[in-house]
Design a protein that fits this description.
Length: 166
Amino acid sequence: MIVFDLKCEGQGHVFEAWFGSSADFADQKERGLLACPLCGDTRVGKALMAPAVAAKGNQRREIVPSQQQQQQPAAAAETAPVAAGPDEAKMRALVEALADAQKKVLEGSTWVGRGFAEQARAMHYGEQDKGSIHGEVAPAEAKALAEEGINVAQLPFPVIPPEAKN
């Protein structure tokens, strides 16, 4: 797994996303599957990322807010939920638990790829037997499905199509 900081073009929101590889990121971007979680903008690209360089254990860096941050009132500044802490093992365990939960949800589910919206609608309107499916849709299509009353949920991690697995 690889993590990238992504940024939407519309509002400049920066957010974190996990991918199986750089190729998975490029593929999802090309197919329009990436969207800003704050505003829904699908014009998303990689944001600049600082390299992960470990500091000496006995030193702590003082963080000084930028002038722009100091000039904006706190209520006007856009915010996003974030977490930080020294317990990397705990964070890894939580991510692994999320991945295990997704795996359990997908057990017995059928991969339908880009045919997800069509099959979900067919099941919803009684044109096809109901069953558990998973696949791919653009964010706007997922929103349209939900507006039609069709139960859909975004998965926390990308799913590798069966034909792409080693």
